[in-house]
Design a protein that fits this description.
This protein is an alpha+beta fold. It contains 6 helices and 4 strands; from the N terminus they run H-H-E-E-E-H-H-E-H-H. Strand 2 and strand 3 form a beta hairpin.
């Protein structure tokens, strides 16, 4: 199927996709703030520049887009029909980078929580995020919770 946009239009569209301060991320931040959690944003000195960092709790939160980070089983994580090899390589690189960043953060003693875009859209993350933050802070287990 041919692209309905010119290469210049497609390039402009792709360049405008944000890597921070996305709508889902802002929603999560507002909710956490309303629950009296305080945090830092996008710490450049940490692997993967986590979206939300709670340094005192040694906890980081990533708010991942289902499409770019390949949320398994999610309808938002589809693969474009054109240039499939390029997109599969791109998505695989993203997933491998995420895994490496999570391992590097855990090696630094941080606990990692991932909130998916679809969970933010539906609001379901509110049912578990506070409990997971509190559980993460009470345990020495550094395993990732998604």
């Amino acid at each position: 199927m041919a692209d309905s946009l010119t290469p210049q239009q497609r390039s402009r569209n792709m360049a405008s996709i944000r890597d921070k301060d996305t709508k889902p991320e802002i929603q999560v931040r507002k909710y956490l703030f309303s629950q009296r959690f305080r945090y830092r944003l996008h710490r450049h000195d940490l692997p993967g520049k986590p979206d939300i960092v709670m340094p005192g709790r040694k906890l980081v939160i990533f708010v991942n887009g289902c499409y770019w980070h390949r949320h398994s089983g999610c309808r938002l994580a589809y693969t474009p029909k054109s240039n499939i090899e390029f997109w599969n390589a791109k998505f695989d690189d993203n997933v491998q980078r995420d895994i490496k960043n999570h391992k590097d953060l855990q090696a630094l003693g941080y606990r990692v929580i991932v909130i998916w875009e679809c969970e933010v859209r539906s609001g379901t993350y509110k049912n578990w995020i506070i409990q997971r933050i509190m559980n993460k802070c009470q345990t020495s287990d550094n395993s990732e919770i998604t």
